[in-house]
User: What shape does this take?
Amino acid sequence: MIISKDKIQDLNQKGLAEQAESFGFLKLALDKKGVDAETIVQHLADFQVAIPSWALGAGGTRFGRFSAGGEPSTLEQKIEDIGLIHCLTQTAGAVSLHIPWDIPSDPEAIKQLADSHGIAFDAVNSNTFQNQADQTFSYKYGSLADRQQAVREQAIAHNQEVIRIGKALGSQSLTVWLADGASFPGQNNFRKSLQHTQRALQEIYSELPADWRMFIEYKPYEPYFYSTVIQDWGTSLLLAEGCGEKAFCLVDLGHHLPNTNIEQIVATLMMKGKLGGFHFNDSKYGDDDLTVGSIKPYQLFLIFNELVYGMNNNEANNPPLAWMIDASHNLKDPLEDLIQSLEAIQLAYAQALLVNTPALEEAQIQNDVVLGQELLQDAYRTDVRPLIREARLRRQGALDPIAAYRSFDVRNELVRERGLKTVATGL
Ligand code: AOS
Ligand code: ZN
Ligand code: ZN
Assistant: This one.
């Protein structure tokens, strides 16, 4: 299924007058505060977030999985799905592949297909948390951290293979997330596990092309529940520094113990120039992978406030970040879910761009605690939706992507094309 730009423009017609009015009103209000709405709209229009190839089917839990129907079963269909989201939102201009779930049989053809949808290849993800059909050694007790050299070598070789696949697609970064850890005290030697991991990452790093970056993702628990080798940002930073200047930390919002101050982690990593990428999602309890902004939108805003501050005060030369959504669950239509996540990301970004940083710094110098909070909340409580709609309009996206998705009857069309009982590869 392909949605033409003309169809989107037609649908937008009836909302244009109202949009012009609300955008004009907000623009005036921001003007009075010395904020240029046009600059913000431009930032929003340029902001692109990668969609992971495993989030296009209905996610499951270990208790069950309910197909959405019409799910993509090939990489080509996954790219088409991202193309649908991108043409509506104009924000999903990249895909993040998971190897081996999505090995392209013909990289050149896939590249062309993605290109025709305006989609680039973002970070490629390796997988050493599952056994593959043809592999010699099991990852049951570990991969890069495993006590057996043969297991580690197999996991290293897999990561190097993922780099080769990514290279053929024009990808420029590798994300490593390890399940390695232990569920019981006494199971593993902490120091040896970490040393093995560092050496293995160094070996993978040595195969990284000059213009590539490596992202090291951390997570406190799950799938193992006593210890995880790369448990937190400190461990991730230590490993990244042990590899070299092309290695960075990756923050997944769901990978923190409850109430962790994630915005402070973002600030610290950017101060060190070591924040490489971001996995957006939301959670109430753990790595829930819920729709971005569905539970803690104020936290998301505070995180974006640090990201914006970090990008504007970049003494450590932190490179541009790789943005990705890492969310999927089993209730919503996965494409509508992703559209909601993209919207939430844009909202938080726009609000953060509104923060009056000089005034905030002055309030901090004056120890005016109340004013500091007021300044942040003034930005957070501004209805920035007209800015986001304006950014989409200028790129010929849909004024209201969810409404457009429904009015084009996308899911039923996909079910007609692909069938009702479909299973997308992935988690
Ligand atoms: C796992 O919890 C991490 O969030 C990974 O980033 C990701 O979900 C996984 O690599 C997908 O397979
Ligand atoms: Zn993640
Ligand atoms: Zn996760």
Observations:
- The longest strand covers residues 247-252.
- Residues 49-354 form a domain with the TIM Barrel fold (CATH 3.20.20.150).
- The mean pLDDT is 96.
- The chain has one domain: 49-354.
